Structure formats: C-alpha cells, structure tokens
Amino acid sequence: MKPTIEEIESHLRQTGPREMKDLWNRADAVRKENVGDAVHLRGLLEISNTCVRACAYCGLSRENTRLQRYRMTAEEIFDCLSRIVSFGYGTVVMQAGEDYGIEADWLAGIIRQIRQTTPLAVTLSMGERPFEELKRWRQAGADRYLLRFETSDPDLYRRIHPARQGQTADRRKILNQLRDLGYEVGSGVMIGLPGQTFRSLARDIELFGRMDLDMVGVGPYIPNPDTPLGSGRLRPKIDPAEQVPNTEQMAYQVIALTRLVCPEANIPSTTALATINRDSGRERGLSRGANVVMPNVTPLRYRQLYEIYPGKACLNETAEVCRGCLAERIAALGRHIGTGPGSRIRRAATP
Ligand code: 5AD
Ligand code: FES
Q1: Which parts of 48-95 fold into alpha helices (H)?
Q2: Going residue by residue through the chain (351 aa), what tens digit of pLDDT does each one get?
Q3: For residue 125, which of 95, 217, 274, 309 is within the disulfide window of CB 3.0 to 4.6 Å?
C-alpha cells in the first residue's frame, strides 16, 4: 500500500534517529527489490544557459544580467557525446534554459544523429516548449523528458514562477502531453523552498505516485543571491513552524518517501544533494532510495556559467575525474554501475 498524504506528512515531520533509520531501511529495501543494485550513470550536458523565463529561485533567469550566456554548437555537443560513449554511460541528458535560440529543427537533427550513430538513450530537459516541438523531438528519437513541477501549491508556484507574457504556465499539462507522445516522463520538486509547507510537500510526493512518474528528481533548494528569492527580496509569508527546512536530512526523507510512492522510478542522487554534503551526499542519497547519478560532462568553461545556484559540486572536475570518482564511490557501497540505457522497467503487476 502506498502511503497517504497524511502518512507522508507525518514522516516529513519526524526528526528522531530511530524513525530516520526505519525510513532509510524501508526505502533501500524497496529500491533493491524494484530496481536492483545497479546505479545508472547519465551524462549531463548543459547545452545552453540562455533562458526566456524569470523563475525567482534560478540563477539562469533572464533577469540575471550578471550572467554571461552561452549556447553550445553542434560540433561541441558531438565532442562531448563521444566522451559519454567512451565512458560507457548509457544516456545523454541534454539540458538548457528555455532557450528558443535552440531551434526545434536544429535540435531534432542532433537527436536523430545521436540515435543513428551512438547507442545512447536521449533525455531532454528544455523547459516548457510548445507541444509541436516536443512532438518533433520525440519523432526524431528522444526517449525521455525532464520537467520538474517544482511545487504543487498553485499560490506558491505563481509567486516564484512568473508566466511568460500571454501564456499561463501549466507544467502538469505539459507532463501529460509528454506522456501521450510516448516519452518516459520525469518531474520533481525543490525541497525547502521559502513558503513550502510540510502539507504541500506531502502533496507533491503523493502526486509523484499518482502521476506514476518514470523519473523523479528532488533536491534541496539552495539560495542564489543573484535571484529575488535567494536575496530575500521576495519573501513568501508562512508560519515558521510549517516551513520545510532545506536541510540535508529533509532531502533524504523526501528521496526515501519518493521511492516508497514510486517503487520502479529512476531516482537520481542529485547534484544539489552533493553540493550540500560534498563528502557523502551522493552516497547517502543512493543508500536511501536513489539509483541514478548524473555526472556532468559539460566543458568546464561552460559549466562555470550554468550557475543555477552557487557552489555546485564538481564545478572544476573534468568528466574523467567524476567518472573515476563515481566508480569508486559506487563500488564502496557494494553496488555496481548499470549498463545499457537504464530505462524504467515495469514489473508485472502482482495478482
Ligand atoms: N536550488 C536548488 N535547485 C534549483 N533549481 C533551480 N534553482 C535552484 C536552486 N536555487 C532546480 C529546479 C530546476 C532544476 C533544473 O534545478 O528544480 O527544475
Ligand atoms: Fe565529480 Fe566525484 S563525482 S568529483
């Protein structure tokens, strides 16, 4: 039985070491039973930091005039792809701001070429693009799409996520479209956003289960001083007792509960988690429900500019260094690196 919103909320409010240990053990057992001991590595390629949106939490917001913008060329992308292939990663995740300078046909051509010339699965994370473009990319061979809904609380969402002029932002609708197009669908939220209550986070997690997401990415909110939310200029009003903390422990609680509601999902131990605990954040995420890591393969000169929040883990590590580092860390956990595309595998329903 999947936990109810009330049960999830009561787990989120717990802090005691015994309760935590029980939750980690449950999540780890469900992870092992459903997705096994493989840790899938996805090569993350941040192909553009240009963005038309103005999300109040994100350093790539178009309002952040301090950031120098880049967009990778096809040639640069293919250089990185051959690295991903040589490392044995099964998937490339191409991520960008919502950048209409990335033309739909241009990207479709790249996707087609990747599918024809490499064994890689293709995941896209390009923001709230129009249906026609999502369709073209799917037809070109893209397998998966990531679009976090960030929070299911409509008021909080509106306050931190201004709509584009003349358009209402409805990420839930886009997620349904992606599903209809045949993508594997990923979503997720930030943990400890100012204004996020325990109740609303519990609703988010319950929703992951109801949406039957194939992939769920969650990570702690990390304030970026170059944004309205991170600088304190925007301060959602909330009872302090109800505010979810953006702590490491809370992040593990959310990962673990996510595993309980989405037993078969691919769940990454995220960069945000590694950022707030560089020593062992990734490993702990993997021991408490996660089964995926997304090592960054973006060229270092661009990676510095993909500054969603400050102090990102592995900012100066080459793709080769991360590859070796992760291999050791995964082996030390008694797990192994997954091979092949690492898609969601549906288990036959038990009668
Ligand atoms: N802290 C943590 N995560 C963030 N994201 C954006 N800004 C921040 C921040 N300040 C996350 C969002 C987005 C993903 C690409 O990065 O959830 O969907
Ligand atoms: Fe990048 Fe360890 S994963 S250095």
Answers
A1: 74-87
A2: 789 999 999 999 999 999 999 999 999 999 999 999 999 999 999 999 999 999 999 999 999 999 999 999 999 999 999 999 999 999 999 999 999 999 999 999 999 999 999 999 999 999 999 999 999 999 999 999 999 999 999 999 999 988 877 666 689 999 999 999 999 999 999 999 999 999 999 999 999 999 999 999 999 999 999 999 999 888 888 999 999 999 999 999 999 999 999 999 999 999 999 999 999 999 999 999 999 999 999 999 999 999 999 999 999 999 999 999 999 999 999 999 999 899 999 986 644
A3: 95
Q: Which two tokens stand for residue 114?
A: 């990747």
| Total domain count, the chain | 1
* For ligand 1, atom 13: residue with the closest CA: 148
Position 204 in a domain: yes
Is residue 336 in some structural domain? no
Of 41, 314, 318, the one to substitute when testing ligand 2's pocket (max ligand atoms within 8 A of C-beta) is 314
Q: Which ligand is nearest to the CA of 323?
A: 2
- The answer to whether residue 345 sits within a structural domain is no
> Does residue 204 line the site of ligand 1, with CB under 6 A?
no
Task: Tell me 102's DSSP state.
Answer: S
For residue 351, being part of any structural domain is answered with no
Of the candidates 277, 291, 216, the one whose C-alpha atom is nearest the C-alpha of residue 248 is: 277
Residue whose C-alpha is closest to residue 193's, from 218, 217, 221: 221
What is the residue range of 93's domain? 5-331
**Whole-angstrom Cα distance, residue 123 to residue 273?**
21
Distance 279 CA to ligand 2 centre (A): 10
- What does the angle CA 72 – CA 78 – CA 81 come to, to the nearest 5 degrees? 110
CATH number of the domain bearing residue 287:
3.20.20.70
Q: What is the pTM of this model?
A: 0.96
